[in-house]
Amino acid sequence: MFLAIRELKHAKWRFTMIGMILVLISWLVFILSGLGNGLSSLSAATFKNMDAQYVAFEKGARHSMSRSVVSENLVSEMKAQEHVEDAAPMGSHVAVVLKEGNEADSEKIDVSILGVDPGSFLEPKIIEGQSLTEAENYEVIVNNSLIEKGIKIGDTLEIEGTTETLKVIGFVEGETFNHLPAIFISIDQWRSIHFAAPGSDMGVELPVNAIMLQGDGIDLDKLNDVMNGVEVATKKEAINGIPGYTAENGTIMMMLGFLLVISAFVIGVFFYVLTLQKANQFGVMKAIGANNRFLAKAIVSQITLLASVSIGIGVLLTYGTTAIFPSGMPFALDPMLVLTYAVVLLVVSVFSSLISVRKITKIDPLQAIGRVE
């Protein structure tokens, strides 16, 4: 470590430039991870937040709420199955709402209207106002992002294309679905909105999009055999079934993967070139008694120290950058995710130093001294 620190101080401008490259790479990795996490939350936050482990869709719906229609009557049958602790129906509907009294197109808001049973485990915790009730006047609780759109408790929202209106009675936090802010309403009132067109319920009695299940160790094959016309999936499979979710995350993960590979290549090449330039110095050190292990530790310590400082600066820059991002930008930094990528970057940096270490072990002291002469 002493040799590593001494060299870092001696050639500080050279290592500062290498450090700057590491800072920029780590900054970009953290920004991309925050963007990926933000898009993921925007697409499936409601599914991720719900306290359910399995989702029952219509058979052949490919785990998609928009393709599935099942009967709410199945809830009682589901509850009777082995290891199923609770079950609740859910429905989704994409709509455009406008605050009563507003007329401009720019004030229209795209939302996901989600039908749940009031008081069930699917109803999210409110942060302001009151919870859902069975009242018949279309009372709803909405995601708090609508506050930025000027929506407040007591407001009435008109649903474009219908004569129905929604009364806001509470706010929830971090609830989005299909990239849209979520509005929760009782399942009966959701049904009257979603299946308003004659015949749209396809003759299904009390239609809903899916039934959420609580329980551990549910045998999916056995449950699928018992429940005709229904396909039960894990929550993870249901999240992957949300349109666009897998493609978005796959793209971000591919970019992060390429970025990590590129960073390993860049760091490895930089230190390999430095090692080549110092080959005669390493040879002299070997000639006076330094062994390969000592020199390898010096190189690895040097890269670990430089990478740690650079990654730390990258983290600070990332958190600083979030302060200037627009509020509507889908960006969410998860501290655990930041820590994970920081460790991955550090490991990649250390592994990239192994090329230099291998070069050092092959340096012949006599040949190196000869170069000096």
From TrEMBL:
InterPro entries with a match to the protein in the record: ABC-4/HrtB_transporter, ABC3_permease_C, MacB_PCD
Cellular compartment(s): Cell membrane
Keywords carried by this UniProt record: Cell cycle, Cell division, Cell membrane, Membrane, Transmembrane, Transmembrane helix, Transport
Residue ranges constituting the ABC3 transporter permease C-terminal domain according to the UniProt record: 254-365
Broad class of the protein's primary localization: membrane
Domain of life of the native organism: Bacteria
Single GO cellular component term: plasma membrane
One Pfam family in the UniProt entry: FtsX
Topology in membrane: Multi-pass membrane protein
Transmembrane segments: 252-274, 294-317, 337-357
Keyword match Membrane: yes
Ranges for domain MacB-like periplasmic core: 16-193
GO biological process per UniProt: cell division
Reported function: Part of the ABC transporter complex hrt involved in hemin import. Responsible for the translocation of the substrate across the membrane.
Assembly behavior: The complex is composed of two ATP-binding proteins (HrtA), two transmembrane proteins (HrtB) and a solute-binding protein.
UniProt family annotation: Belongs to the ABC-4 integral membrane protein family. HrtB subfamily.
Protein name listed in UniProt: Putative hemin transport system permease protein HrtB
Organism placement in taxonomy: Bacteria, Bacillati, Bacillota, Bacilli, Bacillales
